[in-house]
Amino acid sequence: MNKNKKDVKVETKKGSIDEWPEPIVRVQSLAESNLSSLPDRYIKPASQRPTTTEDAPASTNIPIIDLEGLFSEEGSSDDVIMARISEACREWGFFQVVNHGVRPELMDAARESWREFFHLPVHAKESYSNSPRTYEGYGSRLGVEKGAILDWSDYYYLHLLPPPLKDFNKWPSFPPNIREVIDEYGKELVKLSGRIMRVLSSNLGLKEDKFQDAFGGENIGACLRVNYYPKCPRPELALGLSPHSDPGGMTILLPDDQVFGLQVRKDDTWITVKPHPHAFIVNIGDQIQILSNSTYKSVEHRVIVNSEKERVSLAFFYNPKSDIPIQPLQELVSNHNPPLYPPMTFDQYRLFIRTQGPRGKSHVESHVSPR
């Protein structure tokens, strides 16, 4: 008997990826109910709580790199800037960029448009509710494991590229200009990502378009996840986003520069990122770690919450074409430096986080080829 494809549920060991395992509770609703305690579903195990892990000194920050001159014809400081990016990719996996070419007014408009959207009553957003199959739309959890401990955040996820997946009807219609702002913002970040990709290739002694070609040339994927972290009554027990490395290629984050929250793991300590005004935070994803045969590092990060202020951030993901096998580039492997990872498409790879949720660096590490 033939079944229509959309009627067939895809099952994993952790549950169906077509539907959430339990009724969705919006974190915004919990925060607005003036809780004095935290629901058990959001209390992290003692070893994972932000107060029980070692933090770096408050003055420590990820590198801040000024890109001015990098993309101009007569940029005399190119070598210095490229060397700083190279070091950041190898040692940190994260860095901030200023003078990146995206207008500050557009950055502010994007963040504040989304803040307005999340300030809508919960019932006004439910028509955009998502499912774990594509995650597109309004969501409140990652992973489909029944009974999992959840993160203290709501989010909105949407596709920008490839064009067939870009569906304005799945984008919010309020505030009135949000779709135009998202569209312009997405196009600017696609351009910025392409420029950074050329630097990443060149810094490994490759042709500057090598990484881009490995991602599918112009046929790449791009999506946006907007994170809303409401006030939390017991922030020392919870996380806004559990530790993970990003499964895709490269992430460009527009943080809330008024409220700190992002923490990056380095040398077994957690560093709270202090955002520079109108800077983007760039982080290397697992796919670039794989392409570079682990020369560049995707790094574990998490988000803490607080009881005084909400926080809004925009994570733009620049990903390979979903059906292209990604593996270490041939130019970067040898008998003395064999490939660390077998070929795998991004479609196959990202199924892990979509079903199991954020799990540190366990996914990329589990794919290291046996020596």
From TrEMBL:
GO cellular component: cytosol
Catalytic activity reported: jasmonate + 2-oxoglutarate + O2 = (1R,2R)-12-hydroxyjasmonate + succinate + CO2
Chain ranges of the Fe2OG dioxygenase domain: 219-320
InterPro entries: DIOX_N (IPR026992), IPNS-like_FE2OG_OXY (IPR044861), IPNS-like_sf (IPR027443), Oxoglu/Fe-dep_dioxygenase_dom (IPR005123), Plant_2OG-oxidoreductases (IPR050295)
MF GO annotations: dioxygenase activity; iron ion binding; jasmonic acid hydrolase
Pfam families in alphabetical order: 2OG-FeII_Oxy (PF03171), DIOX_N (PF14226)
Organism domain of life: Eukaryota
Key word Endoplasmic reticulum present: no
Coiled coil: none
PROSITE patterns the record matches: FE2OG_OXY
One BP term from GO: negative regulation of defense response to insect
Necessary cofactors: L-ascorbate; Fe(2+)
Protein keywords: Dioxygenase, Iron, Jasmonic acid signaling pathway, Metal-binding, Oxidoreductase, Plant defense
Protein family per UniProt: Belongs to the iron/ascorbate-dependent oxidoreductase family.
Name recorded for this polypeptide: Fe2OG dioxygenase domain-containing protein
Organism annotation: Eutrema salsugineum (Saltwater cress)
Upper lineage: Eukaryota, Viridiplantae, Streptophyta, Embryophyta, Tracheophyta
